[in-house]
């Protein structure tokens, strides 16, 4: 398929795609869109960067625009469930861009913000709702959402839903869906739980698989840097001294680790921000917005928060910590080399992470080349602080202070000894 024109989409959609510079559909779009335009179900196995969002949103918009119906208050025609707030916002932004001129009403529903504005939006009736399971279930349980006009249901990033423990919420929502509907299920991987879910959800689906599971994008230049754990901050700063590296996504294992990395970078004047579950929605959107605009050079993220980062110009992905799940490595480095660009993925590996590296290389069937030329290769880390130099805990200090005060009070209460007479 050579162009979007051959897909027979509405003129308004084709105009929006043309303005964004999209000429030729990606493999998943070429395989999915014609089938979805006819109302069929889809089981899509697709990783980050394959054009999955447009693959399901373009036919949905086309069907909604071709068959306009007034939506009743608290009703919707399309429900898209996705695991993270960032991804929900990103999908809704794409729907608004692709659907310009169609008069399609869409909104996002997620936690971390006050529910009142979302409830007011729902009262208007929506063509498309993009939601995370938790907040959507809360509103559904309070009768703020009705399913009488639902035509299409999309379950996006299904494997991540399972990883994040959302499967119970998802099943409760599925139980309320009308039996007659179009259903789309997308997942980067296909564990048995997803296979079972697909059998329950889908009716005679077309299976679309565009990238073999756990393979990496060929355009990504991968490197592994062996480094002592205490030298990781110095190595990161050394890499970022190259001013030509403009848009960098750094992955850490924990939220606190992300905050520490930002602190190190701020101390040397490198603009950075952290994005993770402990941040407020406003702070997360501000960080992601600054990264997209280029005012923030380095975005430091955890795996879960990064699922909503859809930025085409990321040049470098740096794994400050290797992930426990080898498949997460594939998702991480897939954030670069998007929209036809090349990309670089650099991974730090200390002594405690060597087993994780072996698991990754076994999964991707590729031995990642070592970079032995970086300045901290083979350099010992800072010595550990001696035990007797540790600062006393707050509790110990408080006990010491109380004991000292008690001794002083006891001394004041005891009568002074009389001097012996001579």
TrEMBL record:
Residues 2-30 form the DEAD-box RNA helicase Q domain. It holds the Pfam family DEAD. The keyword Hydrolase applies. Coiled coil: none annotated. Gene3D superfamilies: P-loop containing nucleotide triphosphate hydrolases (3.40.50.300). PROSITE patterns: DEAD_ATP_HELICASE (PS00039), HELICASE_ATP_BIND_1 (PS51192), HELICASE_CTER (PS51194), Q_MOTIF (PS51195). SMART domains: DEXDc, HELICc. Residues 231-380 form the Helicase C-terminal domain. Residues 368-422 are annotated as: Disordered. Residues 396-409 have a biased composition (Polar residues). It comes from the Bacteria. Residues 410-422 have a biased composition (Basic residues). A motif (Q motif) lies at residues 2-30. The keyword ATP-binding applies. Transmembrane segments: none annotated. Residues 33-208 form the Helicase ATP-binding domain. Belongs to the DEAD box helicase family. This is DEAD/DEAH box helicase. It comes from Halobacteriovorax vibrionivorans.
């Amino acid at each position: 398929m050579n162009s979007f024109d051959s897909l027979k989409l509405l003129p308004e959609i084709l105009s929006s795609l043309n303005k964004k510079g999209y000429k030729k559909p990606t493999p998943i779009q070429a395989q999915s869109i014609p089938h979805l335009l006819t109302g069929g179900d889809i089981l899509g196995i697709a990783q980050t960067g394959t054009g999955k969002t447009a693959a399901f949103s373009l036919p949905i918009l086309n069907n909604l625009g071709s068959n306009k119906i007034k939506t009743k208050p608290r009703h919707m025609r399309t429900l898209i469930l996705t695991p993270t707030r960032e991804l929900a916002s990103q999908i809704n932004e794409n729907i608004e861009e692709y659907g310009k001129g169609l008069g399609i009403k869409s909104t996002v529903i997620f936690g971390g913000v006050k529910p009142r504005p979302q409830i007011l939006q729902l009262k208007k009736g929506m063509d498309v709702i993009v939601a995370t399971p938790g907040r959507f279930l809360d509103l559904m349980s309070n009768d703020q959402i009705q399913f009488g006009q639902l035509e299409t249901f999309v379950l996006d990033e299904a494997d991540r839903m399972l990883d994040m423990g959302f499967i119970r919420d998802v099943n409760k929502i599925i139980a309320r869906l009308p039996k007659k509907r179009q259903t789309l299920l997308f997942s980067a991987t296909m564990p048995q739980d997803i296979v079972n879910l697909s059998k329950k959800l889908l009716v005679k689906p077309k299976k679309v698989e565009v990238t073999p599971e756990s393979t990496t994008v060929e355009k990504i230049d991968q490197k592994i840097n062996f480094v002592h754990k205490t030298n990781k901050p110095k190595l990161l700063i050394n890499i970022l001294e190259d001013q030509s590296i403009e848009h960098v996504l750094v992955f850490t294992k924990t939220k606190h680790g992300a905050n520490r990395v930002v602190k190190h970078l701020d101390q040397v004047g490198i603009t950075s921000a952290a994005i993770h579950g402990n941040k407020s929605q406003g702070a997360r959107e501000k960080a992601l917005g600054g990264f997209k605009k280029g005012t923030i050079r380095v975005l430091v993220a955890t795996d879960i928060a990064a699922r909503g980062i859809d930025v085409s110009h990321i040049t470098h992905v740096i794994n400050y910590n290797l992930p426990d799940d080898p498949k997460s490595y594939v998702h991480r480095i897939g954030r670069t080399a998007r929209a036809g660009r090349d990309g670089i993925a650099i991974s730090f590996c200390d002594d405690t992470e060597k087993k994780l590296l072996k698991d990754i290389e076994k999964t991707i069937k590729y031995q990642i080349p070592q970079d032995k030329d970086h300045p901290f290769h083979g350099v010992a880390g800072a010595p550990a602080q001696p035990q007797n130099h540790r600062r006393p805990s707050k509790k110990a200090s408080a006990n010491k202070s109380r004991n000292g005060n008690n001794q002083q009070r006891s001394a004041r209460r005891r009568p002074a000894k009389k001097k012996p007479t001579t």
